[in-house]
Structures are given as structure tokens and as C-alpha cells.
Specification:
single chain; alpha+beta; Glutaredoxin; four-stranded mixed sheet; globular
Length: 163
């Protein structure tokens, strides 16, 4: 079975390489070594280090889906994830990680079975959803992460009387 590392990752936004990747036990390379073809928007990254950098740099919550091409339930989940991606466009970073190719990243997150979905916000896993779940459960997790990502609006609070 031939695997194509470049097509194994699907990312929507993010930037550069960060020192945060050191804990993945992957040697931190220069930006030119990791990203030889230009800025990340110009291609799909194919290293666990680049994926980790995108997750860390994301200003929005991250929907991290661990999958494999041979996994039937993973393939069943794809239409649900495509719908969610359309609904949460520009508000959530969707990342698909092939566990056969990105073993270091899978090991770091402790993925033991797939599909496995993690909702990450501000470098923290805020929700883990193992196995195939109903679309509503993923939407609830994303809504909760987005709610936590939105700063509280204090402009509507009444001003204290100055006496």
C-alpha cells in the first residue's frame, strides 16, 4: 500500500514552526528545512512537527481528527466532518491526522483507537471524543470551545454610580 504523506493532512489555516514542537521528541529544524516550498498556505504540510505548529499557533479552536485510510468508521465519519467544516468555516481549524504516517503526534495524544477527535483550544485539550459520535455531539463540543474562546462582553454591564 503506497501512502502519500502530503495528502494525509488537510489543514485550513495556521502559520510557521514553533518551539512548542520540542516536546514531541522531533528535532526542531529550521523553518526552511520544514517548509521548503514557501509559506504554509502554499501547500499541505506533511510532518508531525508542522501539524503541531499549526495547532499551537491557531487563534481559533482546533478540531483534530485522527484517522487511517483502512479504517471503516473513519470513512463513515468523513461526511459528518465535511458538514461541520462548512458550518464552522473560519471559526475552527480542522486538522486530519493519518495515524499511520504521523505516529509521533498520535503517540503524544495517546491515540489507542480510531477515529479519535480532540477539540483543542489555547494549547489545551478541552474535549476528547473517541469513536464515531453523532454530529450533534461534535457540534456541542465545538460550540462550547467557541463560547470559551469568545471574551466576555463587558460593555453591556452598567457603570457604577460615581458619587
Amino acid at each position: 500500500m503506497k501512502s502519500d504523506a502530503a495528502s494525509s493532512v488537510k489543514m485550513k489555516s495556521g502559520t510557521g514552526v514553533t518551539e512548542w514542537c520540542r516536546f514531541l521528541f522531533i528535532p526542531l529544524l529550521s523553518a526552511s528545512a520544514v517548509l521548503p516550498f514557501g509559506p504554509p498556505s502554499a501547500f499541505s504540510a506533511d510532518s508531525s512537527q508542522a501539524i503541531a505548529a499549526r495547532i499551537v499557533r491557531s487563534e481559533t479552536p482546533v478540531f483534530l481528527d485522527f484517522w487511517a485510510a483502512w479504517c471503516g468508521p473513519c470513512r463513515m465519519l468523513n461526511p459528518v466532518l465535511e458538514d461541520l467544516e462548512k458550518e464552522y468555516k473560519d471559526r475552527v481549524l480542522f486538522v486530519k491526522v493519518n495515524v499511520d504516517i504521523h505516529r509521533a503526534l498520535s503517540a503524544y495524544f495517546g491515540v489507542r483507537s480510531i477515529p479519535a477527535v480532540y477539540i483543542i483550544h489555547r494549547k489545551n485539550v478541552v474535549r476528547a471524543l473517541p469513536g464515531v459520535q453523532p454530529k450533534e455531539r461534535y457540534a456541542e463540543a465545538l460550540d462550547a470551545a467557541l463560547e470559551a474562546a469568545t471574551p466576555a462582553d463587558t460593555s453591556a454591564a452598567p457603570a457604577a454610580d460615581a458619587r
